[in-house]
Amino acid sequence: MIRAYKFLLRPTVGQQGSLAGMLRDHCSLYNAALQERRDAYRHVSKTTVRYGDQSAQLKDIRAFDPECQGRWSFSSQQATLRRLDKAFVAFFRRVKTGDKPGYPRFRSDKRFDTVEWPKDGDGCRWDSTPHDPVTRVRLQGIGHVRVHQHRPVVGKVKTVSVTREGRRWYVILTAEQARPEPLPRTGSVIGIDLGIASFLADSNGDFVPNPRHGAKAAAKLVAAQQALSRCKRGSKRRRKAAETVAGLHRKVRRRRLDHAHKTALALVREHDFIAHEDLRIRNMLRAPAPKPDPARSGGFLPNGAAAKAGLNKSISDAGWGVFLTILTAKAECAGREVMAVNPRNTSRQCLRCRHTAKENRPAQAVFHCTGCGHRAHADTVAAVNVLRAGLARREAAPA
User: Fold this and answer.
1) Contact, 367 vs 361, CB < 8 A?
2) Residue 388's pLDDT is what?
3) What is the pLDDT of residue 398?
């Protein structure tokens, strides 16, 4: 299996300048390759330039411009061209499926933040020796950069990437390692229901509170964004204000990830089988369709767009998609089983008589069956129904 590791880099001042120059040169290569594809399609009888054609030109490009392109790793430049090729492959796939195409765009050097080396030892070298307390990574054109390695890397390093986040630099490794031993069986199964009032409710009646990291940082973000809007474009003051806004967003993201990792790890350690709703989060975040007013030409009726915008913000702040991705990955490593079930009517079906009706949920947190009178918390009812559906699906699945 392949596992990723992310460590903080400790470059010197000179190495920081070299790293920034590396990003600028790879960004120039990316934009030049994109321009070549555009020109070939527009002016040369709709000719399609592919990755193989552009990779074959790298030798001449490096010889023509040894100061900028010639000093960096050949394999990292191939990875940059392959990155552009993947963008075009995704573009044509979306065109065929009828989605919004999203044609690949030129990149600013301020938004080009990652360079990848496809193979350890080819233009880069991960140097982590047990007897040396200082870990370093060697990058062609930059030298040995110190790494803050906070945990050991298990397995053989396959790829190395360097990415910039604000003023910080990180190295990301992917290592191939043997599948770990599964955790001991606990005999416990559980269903979970994701929500807004509580981040998670399980079939045992327990709740995980919603930390609302974005809402807690909203006041600081508003003040920082207002200060950014007052700055003159291109000024040093605006650049510092933009770094402040980006730093606040990074802090929210890290806190959200930390909460998701801890919550998923607790579930994986305690339960052998975990069932959750198969949520279509992208569809849930869509804005409501406008309602034309038949009495007024060009007018529209209220459609609850403001309330839906607030709900969408809360859903995004909860980070359900990130949590489910982390939960699935941790369960796979631990030998646990995670199953997604259809969320339809999970919070409207009675646990006792199986009566299903919209009226069974008179309020957000209240479940009151109109058939048998059973009362319970609506999220707990949904979690139990999710668990039942997951167990039924597992039993019905072919061996």
Assistant:
1) yes
2) 94
3) 65
pLDDT at 50: 92
Judgement on whether residues 232 and 268 belong to the same structural domain of the protein: yes
Q: What is 161-195 written as a DSSP string?
A: EEEEETTEEEEEEEEE-PPPPPPPP---EEEEEE-
- Among the candidates 176, 203, 233, a domain finishes at 176
Q: Give me the average pLDDT of each 10-residue run along the chain (399 residues).
A: 92 96 96 94 83 94 92 96 96 92 92 95 84 83 94 92 94 91 92 94 94 95 96 93 94 95 96 94 89 87 89 93 94 93 91 89 89 90 94 80
Give, in order, the Cα–Cα distances in Å from 276 to each of 93, 320, 354, 391.
30, 11, 19, 11
Expressed as residue numbers, the domain containing 311 is 189-396
Number of domains in the chain: 2
Residues 338 and 196 in one domain: yes
**Dihedral pair phi/psi, residue 59, rounded to 5°:** -60, -45
Residue 280 and residue 322 in one domain: yes
DSSP letter, residue 102: -
Q: Are 175 and 181 in contact (CB under 8 A)?
A: no
Which are the contacts of 96, defined by CB distance < 8 A and separation ≥ 6? none
- 257 shares a domain with 208: yes
Q: For position 246, what pLDDT does the model report?
A: 92
Same domain, 167 and 146: yes
162 and 88 within one domain: yes
